[in-house]
Amino acid sequence: MTITAKGLDGIIVGDTKLSQVNGEEGKLIYAGYDIDQVAHLSFEEVCHLFLFGNLANTDQKESLKQNLNNRYGIAQKISDFICENALNQDPMSTLRTAVSMLSTFRKEPDITNEAELKDCALDLIAKTSAITAAIASVRQGQSPIKAKPNFSFAQNFLYMSTGQECNETLVKTMDTALVLHMDHGFNASTFTARVVTSSLSDMISAVVAAIGSLKGPLHGGANTAVMNMLMEIGSIENIEPWLDNALSTKRKIMGFGHRVYKTVDPRAKHLKKMSQEWGEKTGQQKWFLMSQKLESLMFEKKGLNANVDFYSASTYYTMGIQPDMYTPIFAVARIVGWCAHIMEQLKDNRIMRPKSNYIGEINKIL
Ligand code: COA
Questions:
Q1: Quick one: how far is CA 365 from the chain centroid?
Q2: Which atom of ligand 1 is least distant from the CA of 257?
Q3: Which atom of ligand 1 is closest in space to residue 307's alpha carbon?
């Protein structure tokens, strides 16, 4: 009998030293460190862990910041493309095409040369941030904004997105959100990047494919969908009748459930705290309170926990970020994981080639 592992459920397709998702205990390990230990570090410190194998010390943090600072510039043609399309296209589609355009302006790295691969990864990380910020800026009626030379990654991302020098609290929240989204085992987009890489295709192709995978509402697209859902529900009183109706029609409730976590998603508790703090700070507690009620009802009625996307939605919303930009922000963080996985795949590669179970006819006659 053929057993089909639909959705590759429970299948281990490879080894990784980058991150471990422990679904039973609700733990996430980043290259040896529990997410709770590293969640409050900066983007640069944790990015350094994934690309260079250790959490950045003070000098390494400064040097990575400067390195990324030298790479934010994007070609005029890409900037023009963003200006022409960002207003009337899904931001993830604009991002996907703009990142793909990067291959016109840089040499493909030699996949056997680690230094060239890292150089490409750093370029992709900086330019994905600049492209995403430019999309946000154009969608708010502004032109793409140039990075500031001495700003950190999170500071520059917010600055390029808004044209404003953001306060420390905003920068700190963005840093934490980026760190929490940086890597997560063989999730759909990371696996996509590894599949593309396994044919010895190039790094930009693998990242573009990963962006396409992240866009879907069952994966990274869920954060935007959560905010749209909260707005559709509208008020705390509406939650229970809305939920009963949604569950009775077998609707998937965005931001809940996970293939691997059988308990609380360890990233969600950090985001829940951030959502509460931002709600209190801005006097917009409604979204946190609605989320909290939905979370307890979902557990009561379906036994399902909130995942990373659930509280990131209300956090970003109260920070003043437009819902359509939540998934691109996810990409700005996850690209670090994608690039690290692409390099890891290349070190011990075998082409990904699962079998399919043919269920069609075999005896048709012409
Ligand atoms: N809302 C309602 N029911 C859900 C649910 C949700 N968010 N997530 C899972 N379920 C139910 C399914 O309907 C199914 O029930 P059934 O066995 O009675 O048919 C069961 O739980 C298993 O769900 P399934 O979709 O098969 O799990 P999966 O492992 O294939 O999918 C997700 C995992 C994350 C894609 C899924 O939970 C989901 O669609 N969540 C909403 C989207 C989301 O938040 N994605 C971000 C993930 S980080």
A1: 49
A2: 37
A3: 48
